[in-house]
Structures are given as structure tokens and as C-alpha cells.
Amino acid sequence: MSCCGRERTLMRESGATSSTDRSSPAAVDTREVAHAVRLRYIGGASALISGPVTNRTYKFSPLQPTQSVDVRDSIAMLRTRLFLRV
Questions:
Q1: What is residue 18's DSSP assignment?
Q2: β pairing state of 47-50 and 57-60
Q3: Is residue 28 located within the same domain as residue 40?
Q4: Which domain holds residue 84?
Q5: pLDDT tens digit string along 19-58?
């Protein structure tokens, strides 16, 4: 067995993971934060908004008017003039 193959085998047996492991919660959270913007809903009543790109449902209310929104969804939402970027 070559030396590189031996190192991979030792890492696998020891349970070591790569720093680029996408299954860890920290990696997912970092990726979501990097692609999110804060929007404030300025409409009067509560609203359920379906993101046009991600199909994610955003719930805005007078008690909770500000939240993080995917950048791709925010473009269309800002065009409605019912949202402000915070």
C-alpha cells in the first residue's frame, strides 16, 4: 500500500473528518448566513410570503417585522416596496 493510502486508512479508522465536511451544522449555518439579508416588512397586517426562488415561506407580522431572507428571494421582495433592507 502506498503511503498516501495508508494515511487515508488511518484517518478513516480514527474517525477524523475533513474540514470541508458539509454535514456538520456549523458548515450549513455559515453558508446560510453568507447568502442572507435582513428585511423589514412595512405592511400593516401579517403576511406569509413564498420566496420566488427558494420556495421558502417567510412569515412577517407586526410583532416580528424583521428577519433574514435568502438573497435570491430578497430581490423580488424588495421590488414590491413592502420591504426595506435593514
A1: -
A2: antiparallel
A3: no
A4: 36-86
A5: 444 444 444 444 555 599 999 999 989 999 999 999 999 9
